[in-house]
Design a protein that fits this description.
This protein is mostly helical and about 210 residues long. The protein is built from eleven helices and two strands. Strands 1-2 form a two-stranded antiparallel ribbon.
Amino acid sequence: MAAETTSDRKRVRKTPLERKREILDAAVRLISERGYNGTSVQDVADAVGVTKQGVLRYIGSKDNLLGMVYLEKYNVGGNVAEFCASGLPGSMADDLRLPAYFRYLVRYNSQRRMLVQLFSVLQVETFNPDHPLHDVFADRQDSIWRYYAGFDWRIPPSFSSFDEVRPTVRKALEVMDGIQLRWLREPAIDLNEEWAEFEPLLFPAPLWDGYR
């Protein structure tokens, strides 16, 4: 009996959702390695094994693809609402603690290395005002603050309001971004352990004792 050839087999037809997921996964991998400017729609098509037009049918344009990658792959999960639903110490509605949330966020990011690399590459690329995500990243600190300010955090009484904690939040995010860059390089470090060393500097004793 003659051996079965590729042309003899029926092509497996994937659902639109499955194909879109493949496209976005490939785009994440390529952009995290080459950057947005170094990745073409054809590169994504080649990685998935479809035509360029096949990719465009799902994403519309390269700029749309980047938006989907950022919003649907990176900018999901690890948020305060998920932390509140986790049942972890410091996540209760009447005892919501900012340092505990940051520990949760660092732990969450430590489990998605490629997406953190994607974010780090885009963070540098978006200094270019012509980059499709320039405005999104330029507003990132303010948008994160607006989001955090919507929750009832338990903070030390020496702060008259959560607004006074804003410099601490800004520094924590800056430190987190820097540690993540170091984590992506060799020699390897443990992201959670590294954050644990910085946390007492960001939330020092005795000010934050009982509020971590």
